[in-house]
Amino acid sequence: MNKRVSELYQAMLEEVHGQLKTAESLFLRMSDLVLELMHSESPPEAKIRELRKLDQQHRELLSEIMRELSLIYPGRIELYPPAEGGFLKNLERRNAQSEELERIVKTLQKEHGVLKEKLLQDKEKKRRVEMENMDCKTEFERNFNEAERFCKRPNILVAGYTGCGKTSLIRTILGSEIVPAEGVGNSRPCRIEFDCYENEEIRLWDSRGLELGEKEADFREQMREFVAERQDDTNVEEHIHLVWYLIQGNGARVTDCDLALLREIFTPDNVIAVLSKKDITRPAQAEAIRKVLLDAGIPKERIVEVSDAEGGGTGCHELVARSLQMLPEAYRDAFLAAQQIDREAKAAKLAEKNETARTIINDAAQEAAQVAEVPVEHSENSPLIPIGIAMAAHLASLYGLRERKLHDEAVEFVKSVFAASPETVPWYESSAVIGAEAARRLVETLGNWFHNNFEAYALAKIKGLPKPSIGFDLELFKEFYQLSKRRMKMKPNILVCGKTGVGKTSLIQAVTHRGVVPDSAIGDGKPLTVGFQVYETEIANFVDSEGMNPGTQTVDEYADFILDELLTRLDADSEERLIHNIWYCIDGSGARIQDTDAKLIKTFSDKVILVVTKCELMRKEQVESMMNTLLDLIDRDRIVLVSAENRTGLKQLIAKAESMSEAAMGHAAEELDAFRKRWDDYYANMRRVWTESVSSEADSYINWAAGRAAAIALVPLPLADVAPLIANEVYMLYKLAELYGIAADNTVITMLLGCAGGSIAGKVGASFLPFLKVPIAAAVTYGVGKAAKAYFESDMTMNEEELRREFLAGEREAKKKDWKQSDR
Known about the structure:
The chain is an alpha/beta fold. The chain is built from 27 helices and 15 strands.
């Protein structure tokens, strides 16, 4: 059985086993009801209906399990068909059927487990042999170089006439270390006409300028030969990736040689025309040079005026920013690390690497857990060592730690962690082996240790501070591990409740990783959750509750059902079992708040987040009506509109849940920091996907509304289009709010419309000519939409001035579009 088939087989068995557990819960619930009814002189009709409903669910679930099991079990399944003797007799027979099915599942799991364990043991043996023959330092460098392929060193050619300030500009932007103070005298010559300056992050070619007495034709030919030699190399890493061509600003002229080089020899897409010595160049001189370059076809954004350090370094930030945009993506990180002008950009880029670092660490931790499915014994040749080495190498590459001495020290540190005597370290706990969960935790902690130290080292380098010592100290790491282990226990419990059919289980599935909530747990129009079902993740436990059925339960009965669970957890005298926040779900497609909802919201008000589900099915009028009611019950910042189907509003929901969980748990600052990090790690990719999806859909709504405004503005009657235009904007704003999970009402809508100063009526009303009204109407609607999008993305924190700027920027952008064409 190959690995893929084996995994699918195991997954099917686990799915069937979960269904049998659900069947057992249904059976126990029915047994309790039967006992209750037997001791009742006049059985309540509601209880009888509930029993019939559970009975139907139980029968249907067993039939489904039988069908699925028959596909993978080759033997005979003993059947217990219905028999005469009434309800209790058949209930007993169905329970016997469940026990028979569970016996078969356990048999298959045992057989599969033996096969799986043998495969894992063979893999572990192979890894040990590989580890014994491995040179760990060579393995580190191999992984490091592999990771470096995504952070390549750029080649930049700096060319121009003699005296235009090439070497001074290089020293200003890239620092004095790369070019000695004596200039070309100490550089490493590569050819007689060009000097090469390089370090681990960048390589610069400094062309010898055109000297007096030299022929321009000879100079051009030498430049053409050099560029052709580089670009014809089969290795793209030897190519020239960017050219800074300097023209002396105070010279006030562009020669034919300059233009020939810019247009004929350099690749137009990778050259920046740099007007040097800006500090001593008059505006008229710079303008004259710009005009010649623009007439020659050089785009205006590729003409930059600069001065060197002695001239104040003006324009160098712009040159760095433009260079970053024009360099191929694989070379940008290295250039940013090499330049010395924009340290804020370097620090910001460093912060952006956190998500990549988390991915590296999580992937390594998961691989470690797979390797340790058959527990790994303590050994100097532990199969976990290559995983730790690869992870450390990738993190070192990410943060630009290229010193070979650091690499060697990292290798020895990794080996010391996994080879440490079991009696002296906390990760072996009670035995000299590491299982899957312990291996995952150890590698994750080791990755966080490297991440923290490497990031601090890189940040000190950016700020020009003394480089801190990398913490390759086993004793310090032991303390870090113990602290991390304590922090990992901090995990909120989130109770999800509401009426039957509001989409509670679907919501939990939408905010957790694939596989946490199986598709079989979601009812197809029929409720499946009985009692409470806990779905555990690394960052939270989601407690899915049985839904309230208004036909069989009163509000007080359902409230007691939820409160009993809260009190049971409270009485357990364990902080880890407490409920830290409640998501009370209301079906948005129902479009109204019932008295039962209002009572339950008030009952749980202290810890509740009100989640309006299925908001994709709500009309504008329904949103308005529901918000007016909800805002009388609960604060706006505790309401979220979501669509589990379209993945909208989920980012806002988990942000509110994180904040409320922190407040409810009230742990020490360092534990809260660890919780935030784990929460961010868990949701990093999901947040990105949600953000991109919602942003794209928001842009579609804005473009649609602007196009619709253009069509409305074609109405020839004066002022007849103003009311429809405003209604169009209002509809757009409600849809945007819904996308971002925002509980918008008339106050919010009016404020957003006001960001344009009421200009839709004023501007359109002032123009009676359709050909003028169309672009005005479209631009104003587009501007309002862009401002609203930015406002909702900021979680409604932008002020009026910021909103106004967003509106004006959107309006300017819209005026460049042909709305009549787009409308057709």
